[in-house]
Amino acid sequence: MPHPISRSGIGSLGFLLLPLCLLLACAGSGPLPPEDPAARKDLDAFFLRFRQKIQEGQADSIPLYLSRESLNWLDDMRRASRTEAPKYLAERPFHEILGVLALRVERRLNPSFDDRPVSILDKLVVNSWPVRKSLIKTELGESRVRGNSGEIGLREAPNVPVFLFTREGGLWKFHLHKSLPLILQGAESLARQRKSTHLEQAILVLEQYGGVRVLPEDLNR
After folding, report:
1. Do 139 and 154 contact (CB within 8 A), yes or no?
2. DSSP at 19
3. Any residues with CB less than 8 A from the CB of 88 and at least 6 apart, and which?
4. For position 209, what pLDDT does the model report?
5. Cβ contacts of 161 within 8 Å, gap of 6 or more
6. Which of 113, 6, 116, 1 is nearest to 54 (CA)?
7. Which residues of the chain have pLDDT under 70?
8. pLDDT tens across 73-107, in order?
9. DSSP of 71-131, one letter per residue?
10. How many CB atoms lie within 10 A of CB 157?
11. Please, are residues 168 and 159 in contact by the beta-carbon 8 Å criterion?
């Protein structure tokens, strides 16, 4: 099957993908345990199917590929986007604040926005250019499997995990909530050069690179 991924992106966030130097800086040095070739083959096939769903814009299929933890995380994002006060929102990590504010802005601009998991995934994954580009255009390194955990890095830094997986009921699932901080590390690093808090950094990315304005009403719940 041909490698997926040739569709041009949406928006102007492509250059915010995590830079290789940041990946190399967090690389571990410990030896890896023996690999299971059959499990690696299954993981590679799973991730290829997942990436194709992203490329084809099939947000309705994505929940079937996600870990239970990731599905619970989506519920948390939904709740936070509806009710979380600024004090508590500001305590979240950068990638979560970015997601919550993106959902709030979308709901303000589009009052009919349906914030069930499929719509959230469409907004935060399928139509989020840095996430989409990382998932469908990245040149991958070899997958690695340790028991029920799997990981895949970049071809240029194969020992540094970027995409994380778990096996549930014998089937591979994607750890979206654990992979997003790595995917968005470049955006966070750039914003950190100009703003000191995660909240300010997320607003900067959305406004200057996402092309939307964050209003006071988007912060107050």
Report:
1. yes
2. P
3. none
4. 83
5. 144, 151, 152, 153, 182
6. 6
7. 1-35
8. 999 999 999 999 999 999 999 999 999 999 999 99
9. HHHHHHHHHHHHH--HHHHTTS-HHHHHHHHHHHHHHHH-TT---SHHHHHIIIIIT-HHH
10. 17
11. no
